[in-house]
User: What shape does this take?
Amino acid sequence: MRLIYHPDAEAELIEAAQFYERRVLTLGSQLLDATDSAIGVIQNAPDRWSVIADDVWRYLMPRFPYAIYYRVLLDHIRILAFKHNSYTQTTGATVFPIKSRMPIAEPDYQAQRA
Assistant: This one.
């Protein structure tokens, strides 16, 4: 199944990797590798993980304290957010943490860039 990252999710992942890389050499690369593995797990069984709001799913990464929020569509999986677990713990969020920023209808991001 095809995979599409929301631009904010991609930025969140890059920011987290840079943070870890500044702390310990290669830790940022390890986060990216762990994320690649997590995405593979999601792609193999997208409906296996927790539904947290409407059609938004959450996968908790085993090694790093991050959650991957995603939506399963007919022909692809859209990665909506990559959030540190403390975000949902401190806000007490039981729904998608950035729901107000994520429309239900999927906008055409490629057309917006043109």
Summary: Residues 53 and 101 are 14 Å apart (CA to CA). The first strand starts at residue 2 and ends at 5.
